[in-house]
Design a protein that fits this description.
Blueprint: E1 2-6, E2 9-13, H1 25-55, E3 56-57, H2 63-79, H3 84-98, H4 108-128, H5 132-155, H6 162-191, H7 201-225, E4 236-237, H8 240-262, H9 266-292
Antiparallel strand pairs: 1-2, 3-4
């Protein structure tokens, strides 16, 4: 038996190349463990709902859910105190360079939390493969890149031009993938990380370019085609860049979840659930809240 990687996730396979059957979605869900699902419930779901609230106009939640999200935002502000000075410095530097008067919106915090969920899913795969040093290096470098991208996203004006909003959305994907590539490039000589434990760097570059291009196109299309706030207070897109970003992340997690199901690949299924689980829980909460209102 050997371990290979697909989609940044370790896969146990038989010598003949066939992926070992380990069970279905229930087994993968159990493998995430109580703490894994608790983390997604406490962190992932509220982060998604906070972004939905920031991305769409006239979203209505019940009073209890509003109170829950307000408490979550206050908790994020407390936890992010150590990062706030750095975020402010990045904001001031970019404002000076670009000669703009942008302000930092609060949505950068839940967006960064979602990126950390994605990053931790990849880091845990390296850790499971025995590359603990590479896992820590990957988490630190990629988190720093994602932090910069999330702060830039938080600076984006809601009424910006479609191309600007598309570029703002795409830069987070590009910076995160650059952090991914840099961490793998350093992990190779430092920790002996080699195929089949990691894909060629060109694969990650191509994947990142395609994802950034899709997010850019989606944000531009939403900015040009989606209506703003409607006179009757109807549900509408207010932040095309945010909508494209978390929509792309949801589709990415859904893809690897379905891939794992179709291929009976437990490792890929676990990865997909780690990324997609927060969106699933947010959907359940949203539907339950709508039904109870």
């Amino acid at each position: 038996m050997m371990r290979t990687t697909e989609g940044d996730v370790s896969v146990e396979s038989q010598p003949n190349g066939a992926v070992e059957e380990r069970g279905g979605v229930l087994r993968a869900a159990r493998d995430l463990g109580f703490m894994g699902w608790l983390f997604l419930a406490i962190v992932g779901g509220p982060s998604v709902l906070s972004l939905v609230d920031a991305a769409f106009e006239n979203v209505v939640f019940s009073a209890p859910l509003e109170a829950l999200l307000d408490g979550y935002q206050r908790l994020l502000r407390v936890v992010a105190l150590i990062l706030e000075p750095l975020a402010d410095q990045v904001m001031l530097t970019l404002r000076a360079w670009l000669d703009v008067d942008w302000t930092l919106s609060a949505h950068w915090r839940p967006l960064f939390v979602l990126m950390l969920i994605f990053i931790s899913a990849n880091a845990r795969s390296l850790w499971s493969d025995g590359f603990k040093g590479a896992s820590v290096l990957f988490a630190i470098i990629t988190a720093c890149a994602a932090f910069l991208g999330c702060v830039i996203s938080g600076l984006a004006p809601a009424d910006g031009a479609p191309l600007l909003l598309g570029a703002i959305a795409a830069q987070l994907v590009a910076l995160t993938m650059l952090g991914n590539i840099l961490s793998y490039a350093l992990a190779a000589p430092l920790f002996g990380l080699r195929p089949p434990h990691v894909s060629p760097l060109g694969v990650y570059a191509l994947r990142g370019a395609l994802m950034a291009a899709l997010v850019f196109a989606a944000a531009v299309a939403l900015a040009m085609l989606a209506p703003g706030a409607t006179p009757d207070g109807g549900f509408s897109v207010g932040r095309p860049d945010l909508t494209a970003l978390f929509g792309g992340m949801a589709l990415y997690g859904a893809f690897w979840t379905l891939y794992g199901l179709v291929r009976s690949d437990l490792s890929q299924l676990r990865f997909g659930l780690r990324v997609f689980g927060g969106f699933l829980l947010a959907l359940v909460i949203f539907l339950a809240d709508a039904a109870l209102r």
